[in-house]
Write a structure and sequence with these properties.
Layout: E1 2-5, H1 7-17, E2 32-38, E3 41-47, E4 51-58, E5 60-63, E6 65-70, H2 71-79, E7 86-90, E8 94-99, E9 102-107, E10 125-130, H3 131-141, E11 156-162, E12 165-171, E13 175-182, E14 189-194, H4 195-208, E15 211-217, E16 220-225, E17 228-233, E18 252-257, H5 258-268, E19 280-285, E20 288-295, E21 299-306, E22 308-310, E23 314-318, H6 320-330, E24 334-339, E25 346-351, E26 361-366
Antiparallel strand pairs: 1-5, 1-7, 2-3, 2-6, 3-4, 4-17, 7-8, 8-9, 10-15, 11-12, 11-14, 12-13, 13-26, 15-16, 16-17, 18-22, 18-24, 19-20, 19-23, 20-21, 24-25, 25-26
Helix pairs in contact: 1-2, 3-4, 5-6
Length: about 375
């Protein structure tokens, strides 16, 4: 292999690929980045067997070839290169990298050990939407996914593409987040995607911008960003029928300032620190929401703020961290809370300040905590 690349493009390519390089791997080749030079382009690939990253950039090629180099080492070197073209020359055993007056010799790894990446099939179903809309969708929903590997299906986000919409849903059995967004170019299909992989794709969408193409296939889903691609395996198993969990009616509606409620909740919840499963109780009634938390070892706290309440007053207790996550997900100045009673799930939704304000189609359902 012998090639010449622009420093910025090469650095971006290496940075993109190393997002899937794991710190601890059972197969040494998984710690590497595969560089393949052919037809005027350099393709960088990496995978941890769950997620695969690929990017292609234009380069000047004197000799085509393939090498597998240690990912972390290459990333650290490139990040500190001077602003000069990068020259790579060598074979599978040893590669010389020069940039300006700096020269490095890097030992190669066995190319044959690098696992084959499953590229999307040319005839696979594809949908397209704005990258920023996709990133926001994931940030609002993925937070509700479980981190307990004991129930793998709950560690994923269900993507349901149908009727021109992409609906994402995640639950850890204590809360449920559901959000829909319209496709610019529609596709139909269902995929249970690991939350970690989807969050990586969302991060990439935020960095690259523009459009993201979603390719749904049997056993995997790919996210395309121009010359960049992330492919992830799907989780096997059946995701819960989350639509059956959504209440079809409520008795009480509360509209309250989101930032005010969030700040009050954070202050009151301080007394819960150090004592597991300490809830914050919210009392709704008489035009206000009263927050209370009690810790037998540290004391108690209370705060009140005004709210618009339609319906009977009631009290309900929540895990403060889960409630804060729901408040953060909505992003609007006002939030709408729909309640039935103190023992049934509450539903949080964005609330528009005016008829002209567009709000996200987000539903955040939260199970209450029982207080003895």
């Amino acid at each position: 292999m012998k090639l010449r690349a622009e420093r910025t493009e090469f650095a971006d390519a290496v940075s993109w690929a190393t997002r899937t390089v794991g710190a601890r791997v059972t197969l040494p080749a998984l710690s590497g980045i595969l560089l393949e030079a052919a037809d005027g382009r350099l393709t960088c690939r990496a995978t941890d067997l769950e997620v695969a990253a690929e990017i292609s950039i234009p380069v000047e090629i004197d000799e085509p070839g393939r090498v597998l180099l240690p990912g972390r080492l290459l990333s650290q070197l490139v990040a500190r290169f001077p602003n000069s073209p990068v020259n790579l020359e060598g074979d599978t055993d040893r590669v010389e990298i020069t940039c300006g007056r700096a020269t490095f010799h890097v030992r190669g790894m066995q190319v044959e050990d690098f696992p084959t990446l499953a590229a999307p099939a040319e005839d696979a179903a594809q949908g397209m939407l704005k990258a920023d809309a996709f990133a926001r969708l994931v940030s609002q929903v993925a937070r509700a996914a479980s981190t307990d590997d004991g129930r793998p299906v709950l560690t994923g986000v269900q993507l349901d593409a149908s009727d021109g919409m992409l609906t994402a849903a995640a639950t850890d059995s204590y809360r449920l987040a559901v959000r829909s967004v319209a496709f610019d170019q529609a596709v139909d299909g269902v995929a249970l995607v690991p939350a970690r992989s989807l969050q990586e794709a969302a991060k990439a969408a935020g960095e690259v911008g523009g459009d993201v193409t979603v390719v749904l296939e049997e056993g995997q889903v790919s996210f395309l960003f121009g010359d960049r691609r992330l492919t992830t395996k799907l989780i096997e198993g059946s995701f819960p029928n989350y639509r059956a969990l959504l209440p079809d009616a409520h008795e009480t509606t509360v509209v309250v300032d989101r930032a005010g409620l969030s700040e009050a909740l954070q202050r009151v919840a301080i007394v819960a620190m150090g004592q597991a499963n300490t809830p914050v109780t919210l009392h709704f009634g008489d035009g206000s929401v009263d927050l209370q938390a009690t810790n037998q070892e540290m004391g108690d706290a209370a705060e009140a703020l005004p709210a618009e309440i339609d319906g009977e007053g009631l009290s309900i207790s929540f895990n403060p961290a889960f409630l804060l996550a729901g408040l953060d997900a909505t992003g609007t100045e006002q939030i709408r809370i729909e309640l039935r009673d103190g023992l049934k799930p509450a539903v949080l939704k964005p609330e528009a300040d005016s008829d002209d304000e567009r709000i996200d189609d987000l539903t955040y359902l939260l199970m209450p905590m029982r207080v003895s």
